Every structure is written in C-alpha cells, then in structure tokens.
Amino acid sequence: MTDSTNVINSSWTFLTNHSHVLLCLALDKTMIMREIALKVGITERAVQQIIADLAEEGYIDRVKVGRSNRYRIHMNRHLRHPIEEKSYIRDLIWLIIGEDNSISAKTIDQQPPQEEVVCK
Question: Does this model's pTM top 0.90?
Fold first, then answer.
C-alpha cells in the first residue's frame, strides 16, 4: 500500500475503509491506530470503530500485550457481500498484498472460527 496522500486527491477507491484497515493489520499486526489512520487517510476514531466492527463480527481478535494490542486475522472467514460471499478474507489479503508478503503465522488463524458458547 502506498501513502494515503494519493488517495486524498481521489473522490473514491475500489476498497472500503474496513478493507484498508484489515490490510494494514495484515501487513503489521503491531501497527497502532494512529499509523493506520495516517495510512488509510481517516481519523483514529474511525479506525477504532472499524476495528471494533471487525472484532464484533469475528474477523479479527485483539490480543493485549502489555499496553498495546496485537491482532489476529481469521483468514477463513467469508467476505460479507452476496457478490463476494464465496471468497475468503485470505483471498482479499493475498490478492492485494500477495501470499508471500502476507502476515506472519502468529497473526493469522487458518482454522474456521469456533462456535460461540454463551454461558447463562
């Protein structure tokens, strides 16, 4: 991905901010929100909301390490829109970043997500 200054001059892009944030995390699981915001060209608050959305829907997990967060991406989750629902998160990441440049093994989860257990 390039610096977001090129994006600012454009009125639209092919990918959403959600996918841009996900791709930033795929490149560097330790990237802080301020860095993601600068790279994507959005506010830190928008990044926080997007990360919350991705976590809530089970696309990423936040892992607290000291005072900072690390992120694990669930690569076997399907994309959400009906047009692309047969494709996986890994397909998007590998298409844009490339499989060889993709995230480290510690960042990805190749297993399908576990069923959520609700305790009452």
Answer: no
Alpha-carbon gap, residue 81 to 2, rounded angstroms: 26
DSSP 8-state code for residue 30: T
The SS3 assignment for 69 reads strand
Q: What is the tens place of the pLDDT at every residue in 21-62?
A: 999 999 999 999 999 999 999 999 999 999 999 999 999 999
In a 13 Å sphere around the CA of 48, the CA atoms on its Cβ side amount to: 4
Q: Amino acid identity, residue 59?
A: Y
Rg (CA), the chain: 14
Task: Indicate the fold that domain 5-109 takes in CATH.
Answer: Arc Repressor Mutant, subunit A (1.10.10)
Which pLDDT score is estimated for 7? 54
